[in-house]
Structure formats: C-alpha cells, structure tokens
Amino acid sequence: MSAESQPGYLDMELLRFTTAGSVDDGKSTLIGRLLYDSKSIFEDQLEALQLASERMGNDGMNLALLTDGLRAEREQGITIDVAYRYFATPRRKFIIADTPGHIQYTRNMVTGASSANLAVILIDARKGVIEQTKRHSFIASLLGIPHIALCINKMDLVDYSQKVYEEIMRDFRNFASRLDVKDIRFIPISALKGDNVVERSQNMTWYQGPTLLYYLEHVHISSDENMVDCRFPVQYVIRPQREPYHDYRAYAGRVAGGVFKPGDKVMVLPSGFLSTVKGIDTFEGEIPYAFPPMSVALRLENDIDISRGDMIVRENNQPTVGQDLDMMLCWMSERPLQDGGKYIIRHTTREARCLVKEILYKVDINNLHRKEDDLTIGMNDIGRVKVRTTIPFFYDSYKENRNTGSVILIEEGTYRTVGAGMII
Questions:
Q1: 263-277 burial code (b ≥16 CB/10 A, e <16)
Q2: Is the domain defined by 3-218 classed in CATH 3.40.50.300?
Q3: Is the pTM here over 0.85, yes or no?
Q4: DSSP string, 86-116
C-alpha cells in the first residue's frame, strides 16, 4: 500500500528533518533502516536491494544501498547538493534531507537544514564528539532548528557500553551549552543491527528513552512556527478576467507568520494602505483561516495597488522596515565574499541589489570563537556581515521568524546562489 493511500494521509502532520554526520558514520544505513523497518519500501525496491546485496557479497541486506545510488553520481563529478526522501507511518509524514558528510559540504547542510524542524546528528560511538559533530551542531543552532536527535551509532562495535554512551553525552552537553538549541535528545543506536532505530534494543536495556522513530513520530513541532506575528509576502496577483470571475482579485503567497482570518484589519507594505481581509481561498475552495506554511490567496475589501514583493501585515504588529541588514552569513561560492562587493539579495518574495558594507568577523566553528584578524569569508565559512540594500526590506530577526529573517545572496554575473544569511 502506498503512503498516499493510507486513511487520513493528507491530514497528517509533516516533519522535515535533516541528517548530518561525518563520513562513514552510518547515515545511509540509518536512513535505509528507517525506511526498511517502518515498511516504507516497495516490493520491487526490496527485490532490487536483495539482488544488489548478493552481487556485492553481503550476507544479509545492505540497507545503505537504498540511499547510496547518489554516491556513484558524485564520483562522476555530478553535483548533488541534497537528496530528499519521503516516507510515512500511520502517525506522520516525513521528508528527509540527506546531506553529504564531508567538511567541504557545509553549504549543503545549510541548504538541507534551512526548512527542517529537526536535525538527526550521528556520532560514531568509537570516535565520540569530533570536529564535524561540532560543525553540524553549530550550523543546526545557527539555522534555528528547534530539535536535535543526537544518535550515537555503532553501539554494537563498543559492546553496547553504557559508559561510552554517557561519556559522549557528557562531552556533547559541554559543547552544546554554548549553542542556542532548545531540545536535544540522546539516543544510542546501531543502524546496522536495528537497535533503537524502529524497534527497541534488547542489547541496551539500560536505555529507557524512545527509539528514533518513536521520537520522530511524537516530537512536538506545531509550536515551532511563529503564530503571533502576521506576515504574508505577496508572490502573485490573481486576476482571471473571465467568466464568472470578472471582478475577482486576490493575492497569492505562502503565510510566513501568524494567523489570518476574514475580518482581520491589515496593512500593506511598503505603501502603508489599510484594508480588511475579505476571504481566504485555496485550490479546494474558501477556508476560515490560514497559518504557516499554508499557500493561499487573500482577498481584501479594498482595491489597492499591490504587487509581488509587497507584504501584508497587521497594522499594530509590523516587521522592521529598513535597508541596513546585520546577518550571519554562510558562504557557498569558490570566490570569497567581496568586502564592498555588489550582489543580488532575495528576501521572501522581494529582490534587490545590495552592497557589502562591512565584514565584522568570521566564526571558528570548532570552538565558536570570533576570528577578527582573518576576515576572508571563503566557501563553507560562516561570518557576520552588514549589507545595505537598494530598496527597503520588511524583516524580522531570524530568531523570531525563520521565514522573514532569512535572505540569500546571488552573484550578479552568473546568477548563482553564493550565500545564505540569517538576520540578527
């Protein structure tokens, strides 16, 4: 049975999570185990997996092969930033953003984690907390991911030792005390053997917490979105101009914050015009309210000149309006960030040009110290910068709202995305 055909599938809550870990920490095996043990693999996939495992001389089924099809493409020089995988259980739908583990792929983790509710960070039980663990945890914190599941993998290779688990947990807590993460869950697992991934381990009876899948199914995420500050960036103006919609005018977009209802008094930025929400439409029909991350069309009582890049907000709860942005920036290009350089900047549905006014410092990801003597922001570096935009932007701090607090920088000549910024 496909996931979509399960009863109530469309009504289920969606959890987006990203996986991160050093090379050979067992990410592919873990994702394969999650898909296999939660019965999210089709029969033809299972048969192909069995054949491929036999061809490679594996005793049992090599679950890593479910996700390692991308490795060959990477070796051929084909760039694959993030691989997305989808599965569902009777309780929840899931999207996994699987990112490469190498140090040079920090930018890929930023891409995959930018919309995630949760990060699954793997640690090899034999190696403990290493540089990559710190790097991935810092990026998860910087990106405002509210929940981290720290999976201490390969417990079978350390004889399922409670002492090893507790030492790693203590080391990570010492490091994580400097991070801004609200919820960290430690889970000892063996992805290869299946311990504590979907089924509870008989080898670690000393561990009383949830399995990874149980945690993914039950972690509370509905309060992760900002439901207070109403923000609606306009993507498109809908004017059908045909029967029976001659006078229909609505503003399409994705709700970036707050809850909108018919009758709400709203303001349009940058014009400052006031109006009232007349109705909220979707493809299926009219709905009584809209909240993040729903894509809807708002109808207003007044005929106001509104276009793409404008934002509909509450009159008494407005974002910051300004042209000077102070941000943490993850750099994604081979060419370093140019102090005084000009870039295209995109924020929600608004686009402009910007000038890099100042590079304040670079972050040493291993110890979280500021490096003020080395201001070269190269690929995979993270630093604090100030930019000035050619037109005013309507923004919140990234901490308050990930949707209205994030920007991307685009190189003018090539139109390639070169930076991802989190507004402070």
A1: ebebbbbeeeeebeb
A2: yes
A3: no
A4: EEE-SS-EEEEEE---SGGGHHHHHHHHTT-
